[in-house]
């Protein structure tokens, strides 16, 4: 049998973590060797039983460092997939890199300055790390179309809509989309009138280069984004809808395979496609 990639999922009992545990345990070239959660309730229980997909013989732990130490002792290079919380992710990545473990990070909420610091840390350690605010191919295509459209439109606003258990706003995907548009070196939305916000926040968050982001949180939503361009006599709307978290799994599995070939930090799924 070809060598197996040892994988630990951090945030394994969460909405994304559950799907990743299933996807990794079904992948022919990967072995799930660890499942980390924060809550002590399930510690010691089989992660497969906890998430309802049948026994996987991997007990849940809430001890991150010993798991990284164990992963670093594997014969093959190990990968930790992080889908936890914006408050925890920076420390998790640093610690994984310090152990020589390759992080694949879906957790959002890192600032650009934090990503820069982590990139320097990964460079010094010559350790690959992949941070992808969105693992779905549909969002990559939407972002590419938005970059193309921005050559012809000077006015753009982003609306992102998510389930109401999301911790961070705006979404990592919306922030990255605005960054991609801002990198083109133009300023959007030249102001034509003096605006007054009668209720603070009515015009949304100001991202880079004049781009505005509006965040909606409602039960019933999963993850959705619109990029709306306006021009004389026309509106051009790009929209992506994630109706099920399985849409992220091909991107997660690809990232696990590709991070092993990296020696630096890479930000964005589009860079490894
Ligand atoms: N890149 C992408 O394509 C996607 C990224 N995401 C991102 O992934 C992250 C997780 O999302 P989701 O699965 O919906 O969230 P959930 O709240 O459903 O799951 C979070 C998981 O992380 C654990 N956790 C929560 N807080 C902490 C903490 N402070 N320290 C360590 N572990 C913690 C939870 O453990 P416990 O339950 O024991 O508390 C749980 O296992 C978010 O940042 C989200 O934006 C989501 C979807 C797609
Ligand atoms: O929390 C979520 O659900 C999602 N988070 C990511 C983000 O913040 O962009 C990716 C996707 O939008 C789902």
Automatic annotation (TrEMBL):
Keywords: Amino-acid biosynthesis, Cytoplasm, Diaminopimelate biosynthesis, Lysine biosynthesis, NAD, NADP, Oxidoreductase. One of its GO terms (cellular component) is cytosol. GO terms for molecular function: 4-hydroxy-tetrahydrodipicolinate reductase; NAD binding; NADP binding; oxidoreductase activity, acting on CH or CH2 groups, NAD or NADP as acceptor. Its EC number is 1.17.1.8. It is an enzyme of class 1 (oxidoreductase). The active site is at 162 (proton donor/acceptor), 166 (proton donor). Residues 138-273 form the Dihydrodipicolinate reductase C-terminal domain. Residues 5-135 form the Dihydrodipicolinate reductase N-terminal domain. One of its GO terms (biological process) is lysine biosynthetic process via diaminopimelate. NAD(+) binds at residues 11-16, 106-108, 132-135. It catalyses: (S)-2,3,4,5-tetrahydrodipicolinate + NADP(+) + H2O = (2S,4S)-4-hydroxy-2,3,4,5-tetrahydrodipicolinate + NADPH + H(+); (S)-2,3,4,5-tetrahydrodipicolinate + NAD(+) + H2O = (2S,4S)-4-hydroxy-2,3,4,5-tetrahydrodipicolinate + NADH + H(+). It is found in: Cytoplasm. Its main location: cytoplasm. NCBIfam families: dapB (TIGR00036). Homotetramer. This is 4-hydroxy-tetrahydrodipicolinate reductase. It comes from Myxacorys almedinensis A.
